[in-house]
Write a structure and sequence with these properties.
Elements (H helix, E strand, L loop, with lengths): L11 H10 L4 H15 L7 E5 L5 H9 L4 E6 L2 H14 L5 E5 L11 E7 L8 H14 E12 L8 H15 L3 H10 L9 H9 L7 E6 L2 E7 L12 H25 L3 H7 E7 L9 H15 L4 E10 L2 E11 L13 E13 L2 E9 L1 H10 L1
Parallel strand pairs: 1-2, 1-4, 2-3, 4-5, 8-12
Antiparallel strand pairs: 5-7, 6-7, 9-10, 10-11, 11-12
Helix pairs in contact: 6-7, 9-10
């Protein structure tokens, strides 16, 4: 992270009251830390961890207590916050395993690559998308290939129907924590302007285009979204993102869209998800006389298969992305408790093997081709 004026100034007075002020909300961070521990638990016994914007050091102290041989580098531009972090590390007896750096990543001395990095509730203060991308790139340059990033940030979709309600609950939580009414009004006015200015999917795109594989959302509580991602295995400098890296990010996003379709649309019957994944020009390969548009595809799942197998699940067995296409080998399973294409319920377990190819544009389905074992499944049910 390059030197830039922070929208929140953590002076000595603010830093000294920071942990006390948010003590009532400790359960939120404790849940995040527990999941972060699980994500990072496969790192080497002597892993080196970079904590960016470490603040008073809470996540570093937690990880240090869980992994007694790990080494930590704490990066924090606010001197009062870093002083508290250093004192807490000394009190906990872990200071010998820590390196403290006052400033930003661009002034951190060169060192061997880190195995993992944390950035918790930092990046949402960087409103400009390119600066935020640069922030994540600098973290990526410090990690070894396949090194882990765990990042948490405030994010929300203002257009979502639940967004105003979530913001109201978030403000009530701040009030419960002891934030003054005046500070709450300032916070509400600054929301989306000087912090939390990005949609969750925009944050994911920024991370994925900054030298990391597609990030995984593993935790959300109100406005706090938490992702983990692995640094892409590339030998080129991550600070200069090559065209191949952009292509890799697009491939990962396409695979995620197809996976989402299989889980949310086929398995769960989510019509809103279906509509959000369909390009206006979508067409599928369908037998003569059948609807080759989006409605024909949705009907297959929601009026043919789902009434026959209400407990239907989808297991993705293999998935390959190349160019603008994703090929998936999957298995649809369920219990035959309703009429399936004229065959009365048998109560038998039904399995349909499928291989399909999807062409995507902008993360949406444009074309679809597929083959499946439904004819042989129907023959077996008739025989029973």
């Amino acid at each position: 992270m390059q030197n830039q004026e922070l929208p929140v100034v953590f002076d000595k007075e603010r830093a000294s009251s920071y942990d006390t002020q948010y003590a009532k909300m400790a359960a939120l961070s404790e849940a995040l830390y527990l999941l972060m521990r699980a994500i990072l638990s496969d790192l080497p016994a002597d892993a080196r961890i970079l904590c960016v914007g470490v603040g008073t050091g809470s996540e570093m102290l937690y990880l240090a207590s869980e992994f007694p041989q790990w080494q930590f580098t704490a990066v924090e531009p606010a001197a009062p916050m870093l002083d508290i972090c250093r004192r807490r590390a000394e009190d906990a007896g872990i200071a010998a395993r820590c390196t403290f750096h006052e400033g930003y990543l661009d002034t951190l001395p060169a060192s061997p690559p880190f195995d993992g990095a944390t950035s918790l509730l930092v990046s949402h203060f960087i409103v400009d998308s390119e600066k935020q991308r640069g922030f994540y790139r600098e973290i990526a340059t410090r990690l070894r290939p396949d090194g882990f990033l765990v990042s948490a940030a405030l994010a929300a979709d203002p257009s979502a129907s639940a967004s105003p309600s979530l913001l109201d609950v978030w403000m009530r939580m701040q009030e419960y924590a002891g934030v003054s009414a005046e500070a709450l009004e300032k916070m509400r006015g600054a929301y989306g302007r000087t912090f939390a200015a990005h949609l969750p999917r925009e944050v994911e795109e920024i991370i994925a285009s900054s030298g990391f594989r597609a990030p995984v959302l593993f935790f959300q509580t109100l406005l706090i979204h938490s992702w983990y991602a692995k640094r892409a295995a590339t030998t080129s400098k991550v600070s200069i993102i090559p065209e191949e890296q952009d292509m890799q990010s697009e491939l990962e996003r396409n695979k995620e869209a197809v996976t989402r379709f299989n889980k949310e649309v086929i398995e769960q019957g989510n019509v809103d998800a279906f509509q959000s994944l369909m390009d206006p020009e979508f067409v599928r390969s369908a037998p003569p006389g059948m609807d080759s548009g989006p409605n024909g595809m949705l009907d297959t799942f929601n009026t043919v298969l789902r009434p026959a197998m209400p407990d239907m699940t989808v297991e993705i067995l293999d998935q390959v992305a190349e160019g603008d296409k994703v090929t998936t080998r999957k298995r649809i399973s369920g219990t035959h408790t309703g009429k399936l294409m004229g065959i009365p319920a048998t109560g038998w377990d039904v399995v349909i093997d499928v291989i399909d190819i999807v062409r995507l544009r902008g993360g949406k389905y444009v074309e679809h081709w597929g083959i499946n074992s439904l004819p042989s499944t129907l023959a077996s049910l008739r025989a029973k």
